[in-house]
Amino acid sequence: MMKNKEKFFIIGGMGYIGSAFAQEALKRGHDVCLYDSLVYEQNRFRMLQEIASHKKEASELELIIGDTRNKDLLKSSLERFRPTYVMHWGELSSVYACNHHPAYTEDINYNASRQVIDICEELGLKVFYNSSSSVYGVQKEIKLMKENDPLPLPTDYYCRFKLMMEEYIRGKVGKNPEFKIIVFRPATVFGLSPRFRIEVLPNHFTYMAAAKKIIRVSILNAYRAAIDIAELIEGYFKVIDRGSWNQLIYNIGHYNMSKEDFALGIQKVIECEIESVPDIGDLRNLQIDCSLFDTEFNFQPTVPYEEGIKKVGGWMRNNLEFLHKNNFAEMLNMPLSEWNKLCN
Question: What is the rounded CA–CA span in Å between residue 16 and residue 40?
Answer without folding.
Answer: 11
